[in-house]
Amino acid sequence: MPKHILIVDDSKTVRNLVAFIMKKEGFKVSTAEDGLDGLEKLYSLEKVDLIISDVNMPRMDGFTYIKTVREQEAYKDIPIIVLSTEGQEKDIQTGLNLGANLYMVKPAQPEKMVKNIKMLLG
């Protein structure tokens, strides 16, 4: 069964692009428009193997989303990759301190993203 990736980003363009790359690699993909939508999807989907999340989003930003996911026992071990335009050291540290496994700055190279995902999924 293919691994399931949840992409949380308010940009439809980014969601579609990342989803296209992941599907091409054989992953199952679900998408969400912001952190709140991301939580709803996470709770309703049978299984999510990895989350890719933006930081700057309406309703619930990526940092709050990661913190909320990490606080819940059922989801605390899901690998999370932050994919954001925010590339300052303080943003990267915040993301990692809240529980992200990896922080990538947009635009990320597709090959590097796929390599990192495969590494995180073992």
UniProtKB/TrEMBL annotation:
<keyword id="KW-0597">Phosphoprotein</keyword>
<feature type="domain" description="Response regulatory">
    <location>
        <begin position="4"/>
        <end position="121"/>
    </location>
</feature>
<dbReference type="Pfam" id="PF00072">
    <property type="entry name" value="Response_reg"/>
</dbReference>
<protein>
    <submittedName>
        <fullName>Two-component system, chemotaxis family, response regulator CheY</fullName>
    </submittedName>
</protein>
<dbReference type="InterPro" id="IPR050595">
    <property type="entry name" value="Bact_response_regulator"/>
</dbReference>
<dbReference type="GO" id="GO:0000160">
    <property type="term" value="P:phosphorelay signal transduction system"/>
</dbReference>
<feature type="modified residue" description="4-aspartylphosphate">
    <location>
        <position position="54"/>
    </location>
</feature>
<dbReference type="InterPro" id="IPR001789">
    <property type="entry name" value="Sig_transdc_resp-reg_receiver"/>
</dbReference>
<dbReference type="InterPro" id="IPR011006">
    <property type="entry name" value="CheY-like_superfamily"/>
</dbReference>
